[in-house]
Amino acid sequence: MSKQRIVVVGNGMVGHKCVQYLLDSEQRSDLEITAASEETRLAYDRVKLSSYFDGATAADLAITDRDYYRENDIDVVMGDKVAEINKEEKYVVTEGGRKFPYDKLVLATGSFPFVPPIPGNDQEHCLTYRTIDDLGMIKASAKKSKVGVVVGGGLLGLEAANALKCSGLETHVVEFAPRLMAVQLDEGGGKLLRRKIEDLGVQVHTEKATSEIVKGKECRYRMNFADGSFLETDMILFSAGIRPQDELARKFDLEVGERGGIVVNN
Q: Which pTM does this prediction carry?
């Protein structure tokens, strides 16, 4: 009897956990597993990304390696995004043209960083804080910069600000809401957090909506705000939240939620 073919799209922490679950299942000997990811690295611990700026390496953050997949006879596809699902004939196709038939398809595509649609947001030193590759670009940019701005005052944004501060940059946080971590904290908590962050030497700017990013006079860029004020900086790090990576679902007619994300049942 032929083996059941399972394709897992996405090799983040959840995608890897799914592969582990399949390997530990009683049906393991009857499964033929393929793991596909658009990232060039196997799964790593995103929760500890900020430790990269404290000296941790990509190897320290890794939660698996190629030997694990090789020893367990897992077919691994890295750096080649799955771009097509054929639900009728049951196969997926990557951007590189590779085709993988499946009996069961698992989508563990995770999320991507939201970059506000601000004119000028796609320039060289305008970066995001999501992957190890992002961290490499942030480090490289920091070496050429004196001032850094984080757009987003949530938990991840504050982590990113700390990373910039530790890199030796004059650091600012720009937040659209009236306070930091507005979803989690009330007004009193927001004021206390702001004092703590400012005590670390990070300048906080709340109720600021960036209208455009243009060439600066003193620094590389100038961020113009809707209220007429501005801030100059050499690099901009967007940490304004994440969005579900549900592009495949939308493109190939799978059900998605009202706010995005693939709908699943129990």
A: 0.85
List, for residues 90-100, the tens digit of each pLDDT value: 999 999 999 99
CATH top class, domain 4-110+245-251: alpha beta
CATH architecture of 113-242: 3-Layer(bba) Sandwich (3.50)
Query: Coil, helix or strand for 104?
Result: strand
CA angle 232, 234, 235 (to 5 degrees): 110
CA–CA separation, 265 vs 77, rounded Å? 28
Burial of 194 (0-12, 13-18, 19+ CB in 10 A): buried
Whether pLDDT at 140 is above 70: yes
